[in-house]
Amino acid sequence: MPLDTAPDVLDWPFARTQDGEPPAILAQLRAQPPRVVRLPAGAAPARLAWLVTRYHDVKQALSDPRLSADERRPGAPVRIQVPPGGNPSSFLRLDDPDHARLRGMIQNEFTMRRVRRLTEPIQRLTDELLDRFAESPQPSDLHDAFSRKLPTLVIGRLLGVPQEDSGFFVEKTRTTISQEDPAKSQAAFIEMSEYLGKLAEYKRDHPGDDLISTLAVKYLAPGEITLDELVGVARLVLVAGHETTTNQIALNILSLLLDDELRERVAADDGAAIANFVEESMRYWSISQDAMVRQALEDMELGGVRIAAGDAVVISVPAANHDEKVFGCPRRIDVDRDTSAHLQWGHGPHYCQGAPLARLEMELSLRSLLRRFPRLRLAEDARAVFRRGTVFHGVTRLPVTW
User: Fold this and answer.
1) SS3 at position 239
2) Given the DSSP bridges, would you call strands 35-39 and 47-52 parallel, antiparallel or unpaired?
3) For a 10 Å CB count at each end of the chain, is N or C smaller?
4) What are 194-248's pLDDT values in tens digits?
5) What strand order describes the sheet that includes 292-296?
6) Is the peptide bond before 318 cis (omega within 30 degrees of 0)?
């Protein structure tokens, strides 16, 4: 069935529930083959796309080379409201071999061995932030004081971004991924890119012990990478390392504040269940929303429907992570479930390189928080703290008492 002849086209994206869970309609759609949805106008004109919701279909779509991530292709679908152009927003929006070439330049920075060396510095940052928070008046915003600051400081130091500029990047990242005003998103995207370009050129001549310096000296100076490509890599590391980890840490904490029994279970035995809880919380919240978009390179079949070359495809990770056929009782956080198959980190060639670092930050932050603030309580209705209308799900604040 051609896209333009599909009946009952749904407007996409869908809103989450009041409780912040994935949209209720996704459960209905999993009982059907992929449906046609209308992507909203913004950075690109409105268009139709196939929405993939079932776990095994989503897993296939994330790794199928017939589905292109390259946003430079004519007619490529747009999710983040920044117009596609000659330079991709990041290598996540490229196919191999360019994707593999740029990804390979930073893969050594995120190995388990390299990340383990960051344990003590991250623990020190965590302790310093919690020390300051303990002196705050009650109630106080834990998100502003801790879950937003920790990943920002960690990724800033890794990249070599001056600490005094962290507020600039928090603001520009938040505006870029917002879906409310495409013009503002584009302006913030450009400002962030220009800053990173100037920083990379400076570090090429005045290198330090950081990722941007390594890219500038090892690859930019000899001409193995363009400045635009370097900026794209740095921007991806910055946005992914800050925005996703920030919101996931906050949602991990919120999950425990909403369920005393779950909290006791996670805190028991000196936090032995924390690692599995982090993965299960990621599955449950699925914060990437529906950020995965692709374009078919050839006629193909997916989930029982015929997809034509050039068709747009939206890949719903939240729908897959709540597929009842894979995760029983998916609307419950179960720390005893084998949640290793969740897709929040992605799957296939675009699997998240920063997963080891994000895991470390989430586990250290939660272990420290549970130990330091055993009587931590939410000071506001949880339904009032969720962000709405953004690419990454999360909270605007996390007011607590202790």
Assistant:
1) helix
2) antiparallel
3) N
4) 999 999 999 999 999 999 999 999 999 999 999 999 999 998 888 877 788 999 9
5) 10-11, 35-39, 47-52, 312-315, 292-296, 67-68
6) no
* 36: β partners: 50
Nearest partner of 167 among 177, 179, 152, judged by Cα: 152
CA–CA separation, 124 vs 141, rounded Å?
21
Q: CB neighbours of 172 closer than 8 A, spacing ≥ 6?
A: 188, 189, 191, 192
- What angle is formed at CA 53 by the lines to CA 47 and CA 54, rounded to 5 degrees? 150
CB 62 within 8 A of CB 347: yes
E strand or H helix at 31: none
Return mean pLDDT, the chain. 91
299-320 in b/e form (b: 16+ CB < 10 A) is ebebbebebeeebbbbbbbbbb
Which amino acid, residue 148? R
Taking CB atoms within 8 Å and a gap of at least 24, the contacts of 334-343 are 334/280, 335/262, 335/265, 335/266, 335/273, 335/276, 335/277, 335/280, 336/276, 337/280, 339/276, 339/279, 339/280, 339/283, 340/279, 342/279, 342/280, 342/282, 342/283, 343/55, 343/58, 343/59, 343/62, 343/317
Q: Nearest to residue 315, comparing CAs of 11, 61, 2, 27?
A: 61
Confidence of residue 173 (pLDDT cuts 50, 70, 90): confident
The answer on pLDDT for 385 being more than 80 is yes
pLDDT of residue 174: 75
Nearest to 235 by CA among 82, 13, 386, 70: 82
Out of 37-41, 84-88, 184-188, 189-193, which region has the weakest mean confidence (pLDDT)?
A: 84-88
For 98-128, give the DSSP string. Answer: HHHHHHHTTGGGGSHHHHHTTHHHHHHHHHH
Determine contact, residues 81/42, Cβ cutoff 8 Å. yes
Amino acid at site 254:
L
Q: 354: closest CA among 237, 249, 210?
A: 237
Quote the pTM value.
0.92
| Residue 306 main-chain phi, psi, to 5 deg | -90, 120
Buried-state track 332-344, b at ≥16 Cβ within 10 A, e below 16: ebbbebebeebbb
